[in-house]
Write a structure and sequence with these properties.
By secondary structure, the chain is mostly helical. Helices cover 72% and strands 0% of the residues. It starts with a helix and ends with a helix.
Length: 109
């Protein structure tokens, strides 16, 4: 369970670090205070929504099986994937991007 939460946080961090690395004004040094002020809606929404999804994903009644998908598309016979940690990472990466793009689009309008 803890590894799924950590992977989710890693996914969020990867996305925002890449956003920082690809910024347009690279002459300005990193300031955590400025960055949080500039990105707080995206970061807070991402963290809260990801937390809600992680609670649902890690619920003992949640059962996710990708056996049929793996059997059909992955050539490795007998491959077993820990789906919940993988989903934690993907949720972190993809929702960070989704919320960032959503907020930046609304700010431009």
């Amino acid at each position: 369970m803890i590894e799924t939460l950590v992977l989710n946080l890693i996914g969020i961090l990867i996305y925002f670090i890449n956003r920082y690395a690809n910024r347009t004004k690279k002459t300005i040094g990193f300031s955590l205070k400025f960055w949080l002020k500039d990105n707080w809606p995206e970061v807070s929404s991402t963290l809260l929504f990801d937390l809600a999804l992680m609670i649902l994903l890690l619920n003992k009644d949640t059962i996710i099986s990708l056996d049929a998908l793996i059997a059909e598309y992955v050539p490795f016979i007998g491959l077993q994937v820990a789906v919940k940690p993988v989903m934690g990472l993907l949720i972190g990466l993809l929702l960070a991007k989704a919320f960032y793009e959503l907020f930046k689009t609304k700010v431009k309008k």
